[in-house]
Specification:
Blueprint (H helix, E strand, L loop, with lengths): L1 E2 L4 H13 L1 H6 L7 E6 L14 E8 L2 E7 L12 E6 H9 L4 H6 L4 E3 L2 H6 L1 H12 L2 E2 L5
Parallel strand pairs: 1-7, 2-5
Antiparallel strand pairs: 2-3, 3-4, 5-6
C-alpha cells in the first residue's frame, strides 16, 4: 500500500517496518537517538497554501526498534527535543526515499541538513544506511496528505 509523504499513515507504516525488520534490529542494536524529520515546502514559503509550511515527523529510535513516532501537530509549539533533526525540502526527502539521491551524499552536500552529532552518524554509517533502506520500503503516493 502507498502512503502520502509526509503523513501519519506513512509514519505508522515506517514504524511497522522498522519494528519487524530483523536486519535493522541487528545493525541498529547499539543506536541511541531519536530524530525529527523537518520537511520543508518546496515553494520557499511564498505560498498561502497551508501545505506550504514545515512539517515535522518525530521518531524515537532505540536499540534497533522504533519506540514511538508521529507527526508533530500544529498545536505543538515545537517538536519534542531530539538528538537529531534532519531538514530538507520535501522534494529532496522524496528523492532520498525513492533512491534517486543517496542519503549520505545528501548529508555531505547539505541537501539534507543534520542538526546533531554528525560524528556519531558517521561512526554509525551502517545503521544510518539501513534506516534509509527501511524508509525506502514504505511506498509513497504522488499526492500530498
Amino acid at each position: 500500500m502507498a502512503y502520502p509523504f509526509p503523513s501519519q499513515a506513512w509514519v505508522q507504516a515506517l514504524i511497522s517496518i522498522l519494528n519487524s525488520d530483523n536486519r535493522y534490529a541487528e545493525i541498529a542494536r547499539n543506536w541511541e537517538g531519536d530524530l525529527v524529520f523537518a520537511v520543508e515546502p518546496d515553494d520557499d514559503g511564498q505560498s498561502n497554501d497551508p501545505q506550504a509550511q514545515v512539517v515535522r515527523i518525530y521518531l524515537d529510535l532505540w536499540h534497533g526498534k522504533c519506540r514511538d513516532g508521529y507527526m508533530v501537530e500544529d498545536g505543538m509549539a515545537v517538536a519534542p527535543p531530539a538528538k537529531y533533526v534532519l531538514s530538507a525540502l520535501r522534494s529532496n526527502f522524496l528523492r532520498i526515499l525513492s533512491g534517486e539521491l543517496d542519503a549520505m551524499q545528501a548529508m555531505l552536500t547539505r541537501r539534507l541538513r543534520v542538526d546533531g552529532s554528525m560524528a556519531y552518524m558517521l561512526r554509525n554509517v551502517p545503521t544510518v544506511l539501513d534506516f534509509v533502506r527501511c524508509t525506502k520500503r514504505v511506498e509513497i503516493t504522488d499526492s500530498r496528505p
